[in-house]
Design brief:
With 101 residues, the chain is mainly alpha-helical. The protein has a domain at 27-80: PAS domain (Beta-Lactamase, 2-Layer Sandwich). Helix content is 44%, strand content 7%. It has a two-stranded antiparallel sheet. It starts with a helix and ends in a 21-residue tail after the last helix. The relative contact order is 0.12.
Amino acid sequence: MNEELRRTDELDEAGAFMESILGGLASAVVDADLRVSMWNRAAEDMWGVRSDEARGESLMGLDIGLPVDELMSTLRHCLSGTSAREQTEVEATNRRGGAGV
């Protein structure tokens, strides 16, 4: 039992560490199926969707003001391994009606 509690504490600590890294690097992380696996406070603030509402959902289905369809080619290249990194600029509107970053 103590060993399981220690592992749980370690997992919680690792999760908090990953969240802090994510907070400094990106707003969201998606899996190969474009389902949101991580959504940080910056994403919540910018797009107006809470983490518990975004996690597990398809990025394509989130009503966040980001034209995800314009990003599909870039996303496919990165997810398939064709490209390790690509950059694309799109016009977006955040929850306050301003330009999304």
